[in-house]
Specification:
Chain lengths: 346, 346
DNA sequence: CAAGCGGTGGCAACCGATTGCCAGACGGCC
DNA sequence: GGCCGTCTGGCAATCGGTTGCCACCGCTTG
């Protein structure tokens, strides 16, 4: 990363040093007041005299005091914060989910924070561990964790899954089987006799599901399915995927998601193939950009905003009482037909 | 929001509700042992007899006990967490920043969380307040807060600004003056004698800066600048903006950002205007999608990933010592010329 | 039979804050 | 001067768990 010389080095700082951290007590002593006064200075400033407050703040600053959240939420109840973990925050397919979750969280008086685990199960687990103390509950979207580990986490934290089903854990999913059926029927009715599927990450539960559903529906409609991949679910991953599909003389491509599909479109254009005349392309998610790439992409749209909404509701329900309401919610997708899919070449 | 009937209602829950959760005490009582035994059952299983342990686990299970992570880590110091606040998480122009910040945070052993304030100063302030307790420091990107409030916050928290300059507060900015100069020179050299600027949000510091720089450079090069707006910095906002620009018989449009520019491109196409033959369009940020919209967008690209990297480094420096290293970092942008800008119509 | 010993589980003191309640100070008013 | 109300800050309880220390138990050993 070509950084200019003016960029400071990351200080190699062990933030769990043995040095005992500064507590309200320390500040109180330094300022010559009681611990409760220090506490109030931060949480309820108008409750303490301005002169005292300034004095306390000065002492706190001098000592480098910072309140310890964990203990804070020990005495008050909860932090009023929920965390939404996503594999890739820059993947527009999560935007709807994020927005829906945010709205609902905010409506209930909670703050939603997001964390990114870059498709890495390890990072995902680490985030849960790190944030566990700071938030009241988790939303895990497209988790890359194995079932066993999810159950394990479920013992220690409140959380809800999105795009993933695990027995006994509340979650919201989109009906991929049905959506895939819509895609395959669409292509079949356009005369395509074979479909090339470009697979997503191996650890993705959804990726596996989509392929299984596609294979099944295709066979039922006498269309022959082929699977290529896995490919990284990104625009960049599309180039190699497109080349592989061309090598197979594919007439219809179904990409694991829209990012990959857009990457494929670009590569096909580079290689001089016309879409949809020579080849049809369909994606999943209906992301930002799917309607203004060229040609606009046929893709499976899911009510992701509703999913976010529902997932937060579920989570809040968990937090509130132990009444086990409806635990698994299934939402229905629908195919948005645009210009990237057309009749099979003759 | 058309939610299916299977979606649970948001529990109207005051998250300080009376719903006391199950504690070790409860479990202990149910199992007929002491609280400490319950605690040990979970944290140090081999320390308790197997029969007792099973007994306790059964009781815990029956009551639905889940250990409270917050109090558990009451003794841990610092949260090892940084928060990055952005006005709109779905705006791809922040992706580079997010990625850069994440990398650097992770390299230093910190977890980065993101929060969205939807262009709202109130929400931004509220987030700072709510999260203030849960994180070790803040990165404020494109803050919508007035200078005074930023200074105020700076007294209570460690933080770094991005895309914003406030005296005495560390920050990372892109040189908008220089970037704008590049845009204007580009258009001027293509023969454009007037430039229509589509303004961004009024509360945006950057929006104001960009306009000022554009106005200044334009006059210097004898190009006449016009300003329209403000418009919401989104694709949807582009339609009205485009219509207004057409009304002005503009030949060159500079949009506050790429989202707006893409919206403008779409509207121009709808209205039958050819880009760049009839009209040129330039944006800012070089976001995801700017290279595959049609036509591909000429836009000002900034080293946003470096910005994220630098901002986190700055923040970590703040956390570590009070040694005031370099506090303000300026990064240089460069114009990425694509197909949306061309010679002025004759 | 007494001393020794490992294995269990309880008591109570924390962890680092928050908060209800109360007492002293201060000023205004009759 | 006495009474009263408002501010302000301290005491101590509390949040939910963890953990050091000790008592007790049943058994082996000398």
């Amino acid at each position: 990363m070509g950084l200019g010389p003016e960029t400071p080095q990351a200080p190699a700082l062990p933030h769990h040093g043995p040095a005992r951290s500064v507590t309200v007590q320390d500040v109180a002593q330094a300022a010559g007041v009681a611990a409760s006064t220090v506490s109030r200075t931060f949480t309820n400033p108008q409750r303490v005299n301005e002169r005292t407050r300034e004095h306390v703040l000065a002492a706190a600053d001098r000592l480098g005091y910072r309140p310890n959240t964990a203990s804070r939420s020990a005495s008050s109840r909860g932090t009023g914060t929920l965390a939404l973990l996503v594999p890739d925050i820059t993947n527009p397919s999560f935007f709807g989910l994020i927005r829906g979750a945010e709205r609902q969280a905010s409506a209930a008086g909670f703050t939603l924070v997001l964390a990114n685990f870059e498709e890495s199960p390890d990072l995902e687990a680490q985030h849960v561990k790190r944030l566990g103390a700071a938030v009241d509950g988790f939303l895990l979207a497209s988790s890359r964790l194995p079932d066993a580990q999810i159950r394990e986490i479920s013992a220690g934290h409140h959380f809800t899954l999105v795009n993933r089903e695990v027995e006994g854990v509340p979650g919201v999913v989109v009906d991929n089987e049905d959506g895939t059926r819509q895609i395959v029927e669409h292509l079949a009715s356009l005369g395509h006799r074979s479909i090339t599927y470009l697979a997503g990450p191996r650890s993705s539960w959804m990726a596996a599901h989509r392929w299984r559903a596609l294979e099944e529906t295709a066979r039922r409609l006498s269309v022959s399915p082929t699977r290529l991949g896995p490919y990284p679910p990104s625009v960049a991953g599309g180039a190699a995927a497109a080349d592989a599909a061309i090598g197979q003389q594919a007439t219809a491509i179904v990409a694991f998601n829209d990012l990959l599909a857009i990457g494929v479109l670009r590569r096909l254009a580079e290689r001089g193939l016309a879409v949809p005349r020579d080849i049809s392309v369909v994606g999943y998610d209906d992301i930002f950009g799917a309607d203004f790439c060229s040609p606009p992409l046929t893709t499976l749209a899911a009510p992701t905003q509703d999913a976010g909404h529902a997932a937060v509701s579920l989570l809040l329900g968990l937090l509130d009482t132990r009444a086990p309401g409806p635990r698994q919610i299934v939402l229905m997708p629908h195919l948005r037909i645009r210009a990237s899919s057309g009749p099979a070449p003759t």
